C-alpha cells in the first residue's frame, strides 16, 4: 500500500507494506458455494445482539453494541453550544464515524478513504427524523462512533444506528421514537437478513432499513445493487418486522440501565 | 434576580434532599476542583474512595477481535483501552537488513472524553504514542531481528494500534498493558520468501507466536501540591498534578526499564522517585498475572 504523505503526528512504519499473501493450495475450508442454503443461520434470522448503555463515564450518553463479530462503541456529547456564532433555530446533529485500524481484514491506515464519512451520512439520515432538533436552538449534539470490529458494511450501518439511538436515549435527548435498523441482502433468489461481510460480497443487492417501530414509520432506506421492486418491498417488510424485535431488546437494555 | 430565584428553587425542590446535596457537591467540584481535592486529601481519602497509595482494579481480555492478528482489551478502573496488532510485510530498511518493524500508535478519539475534538491526533496522543514507542523499543521486549523473513528482502511490520474507549486518567499505563498483552496474543503465519519470484507466501495453517523476551509494565504516580503522592491518578486528578512520574519495570524479572518524571522538581522529589520505584516493584506482581 503506497503511503502518500509522511505524517509527523504519528509513529510511522516503512514507506510501503502490504498484507500477507497466502498460498493457493490451502484455501479456507467451509466457504459458502452458490446454490447451497445459508450457513450458520436461517435466512430470516439476525445475529444475537448484546447492548450495553452507559459505558463511557464522561459522555452524556453512550452505548456499546456487539452482534457476533461486529463491535461498535458510541458516545453522545450534548446538547452543547454550537461553536459558530451564527444563530441556528434548530439544533445540529453531528455524526462522526471512526474505524479502528484493526477493524477490517485489511489494515485501515488513518485518513485514507471516505467510507467512514459515507457511514456517518447514512446514520445521520436514519436518526434525524426522530430527534427533536427544533427544541434545541443554538445547540449541537455530537454523536461519535468507533468501529472496533466490522463484519459487513450494511451490518455496521444498522448496528451503528441502533447504538446511536440507544446512546441518545441514554443521554436523555428528546426523540419522538427510538430508531431501529436492520440490513438485508438478496443472494440468488433468497432474502437473507443481517448479512455478514462474506454474505454481502456474494449478494446481488442489499438494503438497510431504519424505522421507528413504536410509530410504524420509516426514517431511511438505503438500497444498492440490482433488485426488482417487489424484492425491495419484500426486504423492507422483513426488515421492518425484525426492527420491532430489536426495539424490544433496546427498550429492555435501557430499562435495566435506568 | 427576582425572576430567576423562583425557577431555581422549583427545580431544586423536585430533587430529594440527598440529590440536592449531590448536586451542590458536583457544582463545587466543577468550580473549585483544587479545593475539592484538598478537602478530600485532608481526610486521607481520594474522591473515588481510594487511599493516596491505592491502585484501581485492572482486567484484560485477549483475542476477542478476529480481524486483528492479536488483540487485547484492558480496563484500569474506568479507563478502557483496546489494542489490535495487524501484521504486514515490507522490505527492510537498507541499513537494517535483518530487522522488521514495530509501529505503536495510540489514538484518543473524540468519543472517549469531552476534552478531545475530532480530527488529527491531539498533542496528548502524540506525546503518549512517542512515549509508548520509546518504552517498547528501548525495553527490547521483541527483538526486531525475529521479525525478519529474508534479510534485505522481506520482514514483518507489526502495526500496534491502541484506541481509548473511555478516558479516566492514566491512559499510559492502560495502553502499555494493552499493547504488551496484544503482542503476547499475536500469532504470525509462517512465511517463506521465494528467491526466484521475489514473493513472500504465508501458510494459513501454521501459525507461530512472537518471540517476546520481556513484558514491560508501567506504573504512574502524580504529585499534588508538592507533598502528596497520588498513585494511578484519575482524569479529575491529572490536571491538578504538578508532577507525573512513570516507572516502567519488567514484570517477570523486576528489572527497572525506565523512570520518567514530567513537571517541576519539588523539594522532596528525590525521595518521591525512590518511593515510586519501591511501590512499582510491589505492584508488578499483580500486573504480571494480568498480562
UniProtKB/TrEMBL annotation, chain A:
Positions of the Exoribonuclease phosphorolytic domain: 46-174, 178-238
Biased-composition ranges for Basic and acidic residues?
A: 1-12
Q: Where is this region: Disordered?
A: 1-27
InterPro entries the UniProt entry points to: ExoRNase_PH_dom1, ExoRNase_PH_dom2, ExoRNase_PH_dom2_sf, PNPase/RNase_PH_dom_sf, Ribosomal_Su5_D2-typ_SF, RNase_PH
Q: Which SUPFAM superfamilies match?
A: Ribonuclease PH domain 2-like, Ribosomal protein S5 domain 2-like
Give the top-rank taxon of the lineage listed in the UniProt record for this protein: Eukaryota
Family statement: Belongs to the RNase PH family.
Q: Which Gene3D superfamilies match?
A: GHMP Kinase, N-terminal domain (3.30.230.70)
Q: For this UniProt record, give its keywords in alphabetical order, as a comma-separated list.
A: Cytoplasm, Exosome, Nucleus, Ribonucleoprotein, Ribosomal protein, RNA-binding, rRNA processing
According to the UniProt entry, its GO molecular function terms are: RNA binding
Q: Name one GO cellular component term.
A: ribosome
Indicate where this protein is primarily found: cytoplasm
Encoding gene (name):
MTR3
What Pfam families would the database entry show?
RNase_PH (PF01138), RNase_PH_C (PF03725)
An annotated GO BP: poly(A)-dependent snoRNA 3'-end processing
User: Any keyword rRNA processing?
Assistant: yes
**Compartments reported by the entry:** Cytoplasm; Nucleus
What PANTHER family does the record tag this protein with?
EXOSOME COMPLEX COMPONENT, EXOSOME COMPLEX COMPONENT MTR3
Q: What is the lineage of its organism?
A: Eukaryota, Fungi, Dikarya, Basidiomycota, Agaricomycotina
Q: Where is the composition biased (Polar residues)?
A: 14-24
Record's protein name: Ribosomal protein S5 domain 2-like protein
TrEMBL record, chain B:
Subcellular location(s): the record lists: Cytoplasm; Nucleus, Nucleolus
Principal location:
cytoplasm
Q: Which residues form the Exoribonuclease phosphorolytic domain?
A: 56-189, 216-281
Task: Name the UniProt key words of this record, in alphabetical order.
Answer: Cytoplasm, Exosome, Nucleus, RNA-binding, rRNA processing
Q: Which GO terms describe its cellular component?
A: cytoplasmic exosome (RNase complex); nuclear exosome (RNase complex); nucleolus
Q: Which residues form the signal peptide?
A: none
**A Gene Ontology biological process annotation?**
rRNA catabolic process
The family line of this record is:
Belongs to the RNase PH family.
Protein's UniProt name: Ribosomal RNA-processing protein 43
Show the taxonomic lineage.
Eukaryota, Fungi, Dikarya, Basidiomycota, Agaricomycotina
Amino acid at each position: 500500500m503506497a503511503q502518500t504523505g509522511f505524517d509527523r503526528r504519528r509513529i510511522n512504519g516503512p514507506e510501503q507494506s502490504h498484507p500477507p499473501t497466502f498460498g493457493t493450495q490451502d484455501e479456507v475450508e467451509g466457504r459458502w458455494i452458490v446454490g447451497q442454503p445459508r450457513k450458520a443461520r436461517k435466512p430470516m434470522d439476525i445475529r444475537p445482539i448484546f447492548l450495553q448503555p452507559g459505558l463511557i463515564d464522561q459522555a452524556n450518553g453512550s452505548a456499546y453494541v456487539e452482534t457476533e463479530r461486529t463491535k461498535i462503541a458510541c458516545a453522545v456529547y450534548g446538547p452543547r453550544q454550537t461553536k459558530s456564532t451564527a444563530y441556528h433555530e434548530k439544533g445540529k446533529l453531528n455524526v462522526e464515524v471512526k474505524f479502528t485500524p484493526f477493524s477490517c481484514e485489511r489494515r485501515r491506515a488513518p485518513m485514507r478513504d471516505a467510507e467512514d464519512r459515507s457511514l456517518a451520512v447514512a446514520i445521520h439520515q436514519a436518526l434525524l427524523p426522530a430527534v427533536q432538533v427544533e427544541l434545541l436552538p443554538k445547540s449541537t449534539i455530537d454523536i461519535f462512533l468507533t468501529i472496533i470490529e466490522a463484519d459487513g458494511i450494511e451490518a455496521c450501518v444498522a448496528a451503528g444506528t441502533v447504538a446511536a439511538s440507544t446512546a441518545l436515549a441514554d443521554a436523555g435527548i428528546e426523540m419522538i421514537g427510538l430508531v431501529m435498523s436492520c440490513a438485508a441482502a438478496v443472494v440468488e433468489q433468497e432474502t437473507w437478513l443481517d448479512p455478514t461481510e462474506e454474505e454481502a460480497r456474494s449478494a446481488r443487492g442489499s438494503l438497510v432499513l431504519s424505522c421507528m417501530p413504536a410509530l410504524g414509520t420509516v426514517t431511511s432506506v438505503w438500497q444498492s445493487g440490482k433488485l426488482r421492486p417487489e424484492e425491495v418491498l419484500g426486504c423492507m417488510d422483513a426488515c421492518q418486522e425484525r426492527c420491532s424485535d430489536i426495539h424490544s431488546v433496546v427498550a429492555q437494555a435501557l430499562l435495566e440501565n435506568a | 434576580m427576582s425572576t430567576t430565584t423562583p425557577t431555581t428553587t422549583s427545580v431544586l425542590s423536585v430533587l430529594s434532599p440527598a440529590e440536592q446535596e449531590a448536586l451542590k457537591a458536583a457544582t463545587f467540584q466543577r468550580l473549585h476542583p483544587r479545593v475539592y481535592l484538598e478537602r478530600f486529601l485532608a481526610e486521607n481519602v481520594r474522591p473515588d474512595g481510594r487511599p493516596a497509595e491505592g491502585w484501581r482494579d485492572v482486567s484484560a481480555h485477549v483475542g476477542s477481535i478476529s480481524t486483528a492478528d492479536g488483540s487485547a482489551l484492558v480496563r484500569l478502573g474506568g479507563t478502557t483501552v483496546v489494542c489490535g496488532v495487524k501484521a504486514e510485510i515490507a522490505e527492510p530498511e537498507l541499513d537494517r537488513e535483518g530487522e522488521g518493524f514495530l509501529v505503536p500508535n495510540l489514538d484518543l478519539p473524540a468519543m472517549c472524553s469531552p476534552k478531545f475534538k475530532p480530527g488529527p491526533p491531539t498533542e496528548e496522543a502524540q506525546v503518549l504514542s512517542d512515549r509508548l514507542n520509546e518504552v517498547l523499543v528501548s525495553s527490547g521486549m521483541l527483538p526486531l531481528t525475529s521479525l525478519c523473513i529474508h534479510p534485505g528482502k522481506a520482514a514483518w511490520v507489526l502495526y500496534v494500534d491502541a484506541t481509548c474507549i473511555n478516558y479516566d486518567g492514566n491512559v499510559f499505563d492502560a495502553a502499555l498493558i494493552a499493547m504488551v498483552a496484544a503482542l503476547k496474543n499475536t500469532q504470525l503465519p509462517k512465511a517463506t520468501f521465494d528467491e526466484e519470484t521475489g514473493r513472500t507466501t504465508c501458510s494459513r495453517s501454521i501459525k507461530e507466536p512472537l518471540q517476546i523476551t520481556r513484558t514491560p509494565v508501567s506504573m504512574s504516580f502524580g504529585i499534588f501540591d508538592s507533598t502528596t503522592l497520588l498513585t494511578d491518578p484519575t482524569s479529575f486528578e491529572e490536571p491538578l498534578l504538578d508532577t507525573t512520574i512513570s516507572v516502567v519495570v519488567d514484570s517477570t524479572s523486576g528489572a527497572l526499564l525506565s523512570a520518567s518524571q514530567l513537571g517541576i522538581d519539588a523539594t522532596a522529589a528525590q525521595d518521591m522517585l525512590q518511593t515510586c520505584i519501591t511501590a512499582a516493584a510491589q505492584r508488578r506482581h499483580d500486573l504480571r498475572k494480568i498480562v
